[in-house]
């Protein structure tokens, strides 16, 4: 086989064609997939061909077979979980990342992507008002961003109790206590599981899911050894923020490391609108967020920020003779995340921030929150609908009276397909949970969403009467 640049042209042109057709369909297509996974599995159920196929034909076949099973996550009418769309500059930059095919682990080997990611990290610290000397690593997602912050914290607090976890592991180590709010996200629990730390000790939260500082103080008073405290910037159901300054002060007074899980909510720090709610955020030790959520870059792209660069390098830096270091005093990208070989996923972040600028980023974040409030107001005006949370950011949790009715309305809404909102359980009640995270969501999309919920509610009410 011979490398010929012209061999890429036709398959790339096919990719552009099908990608453009897909993007063109987003404003009008149903959000839900047209075919279930079993049907897609049948479509792809073919033996491996004996002979090669033309790349352009492969791309066309892939696009045609996959299209019925694609969910329109990039639609402005997608409100399920917390999955943003993709900004044009970020998507285009991501295509370049694939074409460049750089292993973004070492500054010496791939200086362009390293420089781009370092600048993106600087912009993030500036926008979110976090310590300028912090290390910024780009991970596969929010779970691994939490993993990075907690791993750095694990090593740091154990070192403060004369234990080197890198050398000696966890067997025989001082008991490490992890404290987290009662509504801690499952990604934190997963990260703690990966780190061998077990489940956290849960601290009481208020009705909006915010950790109670008084309960945190009581919990810290019972801890005798090393401790990690996990706070939340953006509750999954209410969008609310833990009281940062007081909680962090209490934790630091007790010698604990403070990690902030801010998968979607950390971006609120870019806007003065949430300055009071996030007061003291910058005094934590590590932070995690997910750029594919609020910032709207392509999957996958978590962001881990650690104030103590030495702590994160201690957790992840690898040393071997064939790694050529550009500067021994400067962290390589692979020193800050749990990967040696890694995609240059920070490049689309640079493109998103370069295209938005400071004012555009603030407008993006505030616009998502404005749409969440508009949805809450529209849904709250429907008969029998109760908005359960204070709509402080981008999350809305709704009940339709009973749990049974809420579940049936959610199912009817998903079957309708005009929008996508996910069901959940919050504070022991079934809810329709709405996450506004797409840059393209418009007032028209909000109106369509309210109408879709009204249709589902009407259908369920009619069925109850029959």
UniProtKB/TrEMBL annotation:
Belongs to the group II decarboxylase family. Signal peptide: none annotated. Pfam families: Pyridoxal_deC (PF00282). Transmembrane segments: none annotated. GO terms for biological process: carboxylic acid metabolic process. It comes from Cryobacterium adonitolivorans. This is Aspartate aminotransferase family protein. Keywords: Aminotransferase, Decarboxylase, Lyase, Pyridoxal phosphate, Transferase.
